[in-house]
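Possible regression after last week's pipeline update?

I re-ran a chain I had predicted before the update to compare outputs. Posting the input and the new output here so someone can diff against the archived version. Not blocking, just want to make sure nothing changed silently.
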Amino acid sequence: MADAPHPRDTTARRQATGPWKPAPDDRSSDQRMTAPPPWAGFAGLRVVPDVHGDAAAFEMAARGAEQAGLFLVQLGDLTDHGPDSPAVLRHIFALIDAGRGLFLLGNHDHKLRRALTGAAIRIEPEGLGRTLAQLDAAPDGAALRARAIAEIARAPAWLRAGDAILVHAGFHPRMLHEAPPPEAGARKPDELVSRAIFGQVTGRTGRDGFPERLHGWVDRIPRGLTVYCGHDRRSTDGRPLRVAGALGGTCVFLDCGAGKGGHLAWLDLPA
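New output (post-update):
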């Protein structure tokens, strides 16, 4: 796949005819479940977990995906913590415009949109606070803010790709039969979207100040299905962690700490 030709004509990009607006998605859930996937015609998928502002690593992942003819799916949490969240947003928006990638809704993305639309939220100085400061300093900060509000609103909360589920934080069996709700990023998360972007939590706060997380959902993954997720940095050796569930399914935890002192990992899946 290293020298596969690019399957799309990248010259046919969206022309600037006025303020950018996302196309509404008024399809039914069944139509969204059966529509051709956006990676149709590509050699496969490159699955990239939490980036958290590590623009250099994300650019490397995206460049390699293009060279290999792969469609890039980023699993959410584009920003916060790392050195250049505005550049990460530019990269993902360019991939979307070229038809070569997309990102899923993560908890940090959802919170970023709430902040950008004026919601009263707690802002961690080294996380969201850093992203907002970087956007304030960016020459195109206003445009990035507007585009982020629109793109995060319509980012899918999960995707089905053959015998794989791609999701930011946690799996639920309903994801096998239900399409993610449209405009999930613009709404208060329902039970299923909460599982997708926050995972499974106890309702208690841990010593680190963050919600306690559970992983019992791994045991509900059916045989033959693999869930690829980010959110939790569970690896102890710098490589994605593969965990077998009680029903015979598998989860691959991809987050290796990009933007938080670790590095960005990714996996390539065949078409």
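Follow-up from reviewer: compared with the archived run. The longest helix spans residues 85-98. Marking as no regression found.
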